[in-house]
Amino acid sequence: MEPLKVGILISGRGSNLQALIDAAADPAYPAEIAIVISNRADAPGLDRAKAAKIPHRVIAESGRRAFAAAADRELRAANIGLVALAGFMRLLDSDFVAAWRDRMVNIHPSLLPAFPGLHPQRQALAAGVKFSGCTVHFVRAEVDSGPIIAQAVVPVEDGDDEDRLAARILVAEHRVYPLAVRLFAEGRLGISGNRVSVAGGVPPDIVALNPTLASVES
Ligand code: GAR
Fold first, then answer.
1. Which residue CA neighbors atom 14 of ligand 1 most closely?
2. Catalytic residues
3. Mapping DSSP to helix (H, G, I), strand (E, B) and coil, where does residue 87 land?
């Protein structure tokens, strides 16, 4: 089967982009990164796309609609089947979100719906939660909202500050994002309202990220 063509939108560092590039380097992975779009010309993630010889574009339009129109053109020209936001830090035009409904995913460094928006690790520390983590979800109009595909739990440790917690969550992000994109590419995700089901059951790698699920599996 032809691999699913994924378009990735970034604004910065691109470490999640890199995790997806690395996953897709495996010929058995069911998706390929076909285009990378950045809204910032200085995003370091663009160098990762360059190094991997992936077509990349900068769309620096300041207007939300103008950005969306240009991004939509590029994504359609590249025959994209899934848009993945990877540290894309701009609000998206609502028509663009509607046009890519159920074909656009995002990763966010908290256990949504807790702590959407900016500085989620700072929000988690301020709230005093004992567990945080990351979430991959289908994109809906509200920021960092939509049906949840996969989450990974990361304990908050005594002495954590924002950077330390963010660094440990990032390690989990790099595992869970390629996994969620794989499930989509394999056509295993069903959406019903806010809930996402995974055909064939919860894969072992999700159980590894969330050990408490092991008892559900057996
Ligand atoms: C990641 O932690 C990602 O989850 C977060 O930005 C960081 C980007 O890092 N995204 C959001 O907060 C979206 N609301 P990266 O550029 O190295 O992938």
1. 108
2. 108
3. coil
